[in-house]
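Every protein is a chain of amino acids, and every chain bends into a shape of its own. Below is the pair of lines this work produces for a single protein:
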Amino acid sequence: MAADYQRCAELIRQADGLLVTAGAGIGVDSGLPDFRGPQGFWGAYPALGRARIAFEQIANPAAFRSRPRLAWGFYGHRLQLYRRTLPHEGFQILRRIGERLPHGCFVFTSNVDGQFQAAGFAAERISECHGSIHHLQCSDGCEDEQRGIWPADDFVPELDEEQCLLTSDLPVCPRCQQIARPNILMFGDWEWRSERSDAQANRLQTWLHQVKHLLVIEVGAGTAIPTARRMGERLPGRLIRINPTEPQLPAGKGVSITAGGLVALRAIAAALA
C-alpha cells in the first residue's frame, strides 16, 4: 500500500492540472448518509421505508406533482443536512494538491450537495453534472429566460421528520407561482433545466484544453450511477481511483486505492510531504 501512495505522489508531481471527480462516497467521511441499496436509503428515511417508497420514486419529478409535501420533506431534509455539514479534511488536501500545479484544479461531481463550494473551491471551477440542491426551478415547465434557475437561499424548510413531510410553505416559482423543485436531474426527468450545469461543463472543457499533463483523482464514485467514474476513465491522462468497494481500474490507467476517501487522501498527502 505504501508503494501505491508513493506512486500517487509521483503522478501528482508529473501533472500540470488536477481534475477531481467525485461521487457520493466522498461525503461519507463528512457524515452524509449512504443511499446504497434500499436498506441504506430507508435507514436514513424511515417514513419512506414504512411506505415502501424507493429512492427512485421520491427522487422523481412526478413526486412533486402527486405528493409535493412528501417530496419536499425528503429534499428539504437533504437541503438542511447539506447546509449544516462541514466538509471533511480530505477536501482541503485536494485543494492543496491543486494549488501545487500550474493549471490548478477543476472539480467534476455527480453530487448535488454543494460540499466543494462549502470547502472553498472556486465556484467557477466546479462542474455539477446533476445540478444542485441549492438552486430551484419551476416544476411546471415555466419558461422564464431570466429567472429559470434561482438560488434556494431564501427557502428555509420546516419539517415533520418523523413523517418526512414539509410543514412550512412550499417554495414557488417567482413568475407563475407554481411549485418549485430542486434544480437536480432526477430519475425519469425530462423537465430538468440544465443551463447552469451546461455553462459549468463548458468552462470545464475550456480548462481541459489548456492542460497538457492531466491527473484525475476520483473519490467515492461507484458503478450504480457511474457518471463521475466514466469521466475519469475516458479522459487522457492518469487516474488515481479511491474507492473502498469498487477500486477496479483499467490496466495501465493509473493507481487504484482500496480505501475510504479521507484515509487515502491523508496517506497521499503524507507521501507528497
